[in-house]
Amino acid sequence: MPGLYAGLYVGLSGLKAQQSALDVVGHNIANVNTPGYTRQRATLAANQGQTEGQVYFGTGVSLTSVQGVRDKFLDLQIYQETARQTGANERLAGVTTVSTTLGNTGTTGLAAQIQNFFQGFQDLAAHPESSASRTNLLGQAQTMITGMQAQYRMLADQRNSDDQSVASLVTEVNALTDQIAQLNQRITGSVPKGSDSDAVDQRKTVTDSLAALVGINVSESINGDYQITLDSGSAVLVSGNSSFKLQTSPGGAALDNHLAVQSVMGASVVDVTGSIKNGQLGGKLDLRDNILAGYQRQLDQIAAGVAGQVNLLHRTGIAADGVTTGNDFFRTGVANGANGLPPSITAASFYKGMVNTLTVNAAVSANPSLIAAAGVAGVVGDNANANAIAKLQLATATVDTNGDGAGDSGPYSTSVGSLISDVGTTVQKWDAQNTTQQNLVTALQAQRDSVSGVSLDEEATNMMTLQRGYQASARFISVINQLTDELVNSFGK
Amino acid sequence: MSIRTVPSTLNRQSLLDLQRTNERLANNQQRISSGNRLVNPGDDPAAAAAIVDLGNSIEANNQFLKQIDSATSYLSPSEDAVNAAVNANMRLQELAVGAGGSTLSAADRASYLTEIDSIRTNLVSIANTQSQGKYLFAGKLTTTVPFTDAVPPALPAYNGDQGHINLDVTATQSVATNIPGDQVFANGGPGSASNFFQAIADLRVGITSNNLAQIQTASNNLTSVLDNLNQVLAELGGRQAGLLALKDTLSGFNVSLQSLQNTKQDTDYPQAAVEYSSDQTAQSATLSSMAKISKTNLFDYLA
Asked: Is A453 on the interface with B (CB under 8 A)?
């Protein structure tokens, strides 16, 4: 049987354990609004007993560990879904920005401008002698060109701004992977490994930020450190205590002189521009290299369809002087090829650059009488060619969409319509995906909160329990004290 | 066992819901204020593309309607001119009958010449009628004066050509907006019975040479000229009637296309208003419940 003094120590262990556990409650309450904080739980365990003969006597309690209450697989899943959500959100935002202009279905949209241009030819057919209708036609052509170029430039501006974000996002990614590598070290260095719950929380928060920037795959090793790769698996970002940087470098003509993203692992430098699918970075790269570039391509194709077809007919017509023929309506300083397009514009490149080189022939705009309305030489009132060109607006197979050099579309309005519907479908797709991912991430976060979040009700209850425990232990010490007093002062009097 | 629900969960979910409600409110607000169902093309990509296509058809029809007006603006003055020529022809027939009277002296006959000459001069100006800067009866040589007057027995020369100026009035149909002047005023060329100028010249020669038989021939020829003019009138009238019918068809077609476009484009006001007010209710309910829930926890009740 242990002595009275041993009883004092039992009581003391109770006081200390309850008080330490109360500290944990206090820490939880203090962090109730800290983002990413994981509630901690104190584990109390009975001390090893003492044997007196065949009887075991307890020696009180001690606080054996303070642990974060977390579900690490939930964290890994949240990283992945967060990256998908920010990627979808980025694409949605980017496409929405350009969609109101590109998707203009009204009288100021591209379809209406192309139509007005051809109506200019129809008006000319009604009055081939009139210089007013020639000037009007040139004005309509200029409006159409300006409209196309404004849309094209808006897309180019958007791509450039995405490109600038790529550079700054890469810098942010490097800063975050650095921090994660350091936190890995802190976590695996704590004894026992992984017991530094606040460091684990901090790493979770930093990794959340990283996932928002770039699509990643995270796995946790037995040691408790994070291994992070790009979601495509093509490059390692963090491995144990080391982080590997991403860097940007000029991407040349293949990327329209935008930046390429590379992964640097020691001496090996790998291009990962096309392998980042998610996160803000993935979204920006997809917008820059695929989505917006695709819209520019469609504009180029439409412009080539208009310019090529009009030129082919226009060069066979006769100008107002009744003699001059062989002029193109659209041309730059360099003569057009047999297909009516500038030699620098090729079908194989899907007419890249057509919109930017689209100009009314300088000779024609300086002298509108060169517009070839007539189909017969020497006949001033003939309008056969103007009629033929005006008919193009309802003709099919005027736009080449597959780059084989032959038209394969409906009328121009169908090509513009399909551009608009492309933009719309893309908005719709990423909007739906963004909403779905948002729901998923919110549900996962709610699940994580339900495991790891601080509930004030729960803390209040724990606090009361611990307070009572502390009071009872104190009471016990006071009883032992009374017993000792009895023994020392009253015994034997 | 219930699921642990902590305040941050409630706040996050309510915030997300509030943001979505606000977005819907803003979209419906824009639908209501702009009258346009499609706030952005992502709302209904297929409809957006269809609106463009329908708009294209409507505008193409509008342009055809304009071309019909243009064509009419040439055909209608041509008809007026030919009508004037018909009147001149009738007056000449009266004069021919008068001058052909067997009891008239040579001097009396000669007195008809002044009016016949002035009618001929008028007829040349009628044949040289212009509309919007174009000579109507010069074929495709619309800037060339079609007829230059000549002193009888020479005939006014035709300087135009045989061309027809066609305007497209539908995607597949075109209409000629002119009739070459020689077919109207000098049909068949010099010597032909239905050549108006030849008949006038013959009449004049008959009167000056006091040749009753020639006056009679000229008078008969004037009747053939009238037949020809009437044929031309019928042709011009027929073309305009066709255009008028086409105009009705195209306008009617546009009305249905427009209403089709409207159903794709216009805001469904009752639906937008109902959605708007239910979102408003949801918004205010969320706000007030958020305020209440976050107020309470156990600490409020501990001494």
From this structure: yes
Calpha distance A188→A105 (Å, rounded):
60
| Gap between the Cα atoms of A325 and A311, Å rounded | 12
Residue B141 contacts A where some CB pair is shorter than 8 Å: yes
CA A443/CA B3 separation, integer angstroms: 13
CB–CB contact B8 A449 (8 Å): yes
pTM: 0.83
- Omega cis (within 30) before A192: yes
Are A381 and B16 inside 8 Å of each other by CB? no
Name every chain B residue with its beta carbon within 8 A of the beta carbon of A102: 41
Q: Which residues of chain A make contact with B134, given a CB cutoff of 8 A? A: 127, 129, 381
Whether A359 contacts A331, CB under 8 Å: yes
Residue type, A363: A
Q: Name the residue in chain B with its Cα closest to that of A383.
A: B165
For residue A229, list its beta bridge partners.
A217, A236
Alpha-carbon gap: A186 to the closest alpha carbon of chain B (Å): 28
Q: Which two tokens stand for residue A262?
A: 């590379």
B164–chain A nearest CA distance, Å: 8
Within 165-224 of B, beta carbons closer than 8 Å to A belong to: 165-168, 171, 174
* Residue labelled with tokens 């490097």: A174
Distance CA B146, CA B156 (A): 10
The DSSP annotation for B22-78 comes to HHHHHHHHHHHHH-BS-SSGGG-HHHHHHHHHHHHHHHHHHHHHHHHHHHHHHHHHH
Q: Check CB contact under 8 Å for B140 and A427.
A: no
Q: What are phi and psi of B112, to 5 degrees?
A: -75, -20
Q: Do A416 and B52 touch (CB under 8 A)?
A: yes
Residues β-bridged to residue B70:
none
- How far does the CA of residue A395 sit from the closest CA of chain B (Å)? 9
Return d(Cα B17, Cα B284) in angstroms, integer: 12
| Chains A, B: CB pairs < 8 Å | 182
Query: Given the structure tokens 């820059």, which residue do they identify?
Result: A288
A97 and B40 Cβ atoms separated by less than 8 Å: no
Residues 6+ apart with CB under 8 A from B69: none
Scanning B242-261 for CB atoms below 8 A from A yields none
Q: Residue A126: which of B44, B50, B70 has the nearest Cβ? A: B70
CA–CA separation, A392 and B213 (whole Å) = 60
Q: What is the 3-state secondary structure (H, E, C) of B155-171?
A: CCEECCCCCCCEEECCC
Residue by residue, pLDDT tens for chain A (493 residues) are 678 888 889 999 999 999 999 999 999 999 988 888 999 999 999 998 888 888 888 889 999 999 899 898 999 999 999 999 999 999 999 999 898 888 888 778 898 999 999 999 999 998 888 889 999 999 999 999 999 999 999 999 999 999 999 999 999 999 999 999 999 999 998 888 778 888 999 999 999 999 999 999 999 988 889 999 998 888 999 999 999 999 999 998 889 999 999 999 888 899 999 999 999 999 999 999 999 999 999 999 999 999 999 999 999 999 999 899 999 999 988 999 999 999 999 999 999 999 999 999 999 999 999 999 999 888 888 999 999 999 998 888 999 988 888 888 888 888 998 998 899 999 999 999 999 999 999 999 999 988 999 988 899 999 999 999 999 999 999 999 998 888 888 877 6
Please give the Cα distance from A149 to A245 (Å, whole number): 39
